Amino acid sequence: MLREYEDLYNDDVLAEATRRFGIDAGGLTLLDGQHSLVYDCRRGEESLILKITHTLHRSRENIMGELEFVNYVAEGGVAAPRAVSSLRGNLVEVLEAKKGSFLAFAYEKAPGALVDWRHWTPTLFKEWGAVIGRMHALTKHYEPSSEAIRRRYWHEDRDWQLQDHPPDMPSFIREETRRAKEWLMALPQDKDSFGLIHSDLHQWNFFVDDGTIRPFDFDNAHYDWFLADFSTVLQNVILAQARHYERGEYEYWSGGKKMDGQTFLTYFMDSFMAGYREQNSLSAHWLKKLPEFLHIRYLTMYWDKCRAREPEKLSEEEQASAYPWRTVKQMYDELVDGFWRRYDFTQYA
């Protein structure tokens, strides 16, 4: 949980959340706690996921916008688990704290399981692309039920507020943020390239259930270019592939073939784009902008890594122990070198 509000959370908050949703308090399993507390739980015969976050992270209206969008895409054919109401009929329950409030909400638990990297196949990549394509096709026609619950636009995220950056943020990062924001602001925002997107559908945010991808964790859903969905997926699979490749663990998902980064990118993109185009069309000129979107996505990851765990107090091994398996310095150096701009997407356009 982000340090801004982790000291406000206690067992009483959790107990009240479970009471309001009728959840069995004795059967909770904590799944994640980075930005929100996420619990596996049960309500009678139902398997649910309970999430608790703070108003310092998201407002009640923002959460309502998330839940409405999830139910909208589920009704439109995406196999996303739907949001469920509390015992009082509310999708979001407000729990008062010493500062601000905690917000509790719940989803159906998606059947299936995370897909192991050893089971990555072109079939999976195609389905992955189709799910994102379906959501992009649906978002073209989506309007929230009220303006109050409209999700934020990309530039409203605090990452883009330079005045809120730590004073010791490197000057290169500060200038790169300013330049990236200006570049994005100049891009067109028509309904065929821009809308409310999931923005975080990497391999740890969906289950596979008998071949069906079931996306979850719409916490970061916001208005952005469709390419932002692409950049999240690509960055995660490219970095994961590179890590396994370095460790000699390529034989499972590639049929024993050694693949460098660009070769793997083609292996992935050919199937991913085939699935995407079955559900939605995206003008070819957009794909050529993907290297810049990947660079910008990495920039936001750098901010997040600097903020979340006070990396200066961690050893290099500790900094690189989790995704993206880089130290802060390594990420900085790759941003300076334009690591993500080396990839060529022309052939996939």
Describe the protein.
With 349 residues, the protein is α+β, with helices and mostly antiparallel strands. Helices cover 39% and strands 14% of the residues. The protein folds into 2 domains: 103 residues, Phosphorylase Kinase, domain 1; 232 residues, Aminoglycoside 3'-phosphotransferase, Chain: A, domain 2 (Alpha-Beta Complex). The longest helix has 21 residues. Strands 1, 2, 3, 4, 5 and 6 form a 6-stranded antiparallel sheet that branches. A two-stranded antiparallel sheet has the order 7-10. A two-stranded antiparallel sheet has the order 8-9. A hairpin with a 4-residue loop joins strand 1 and strand 2. The model has no long low-confidence stretch (mean pLDDT 90).
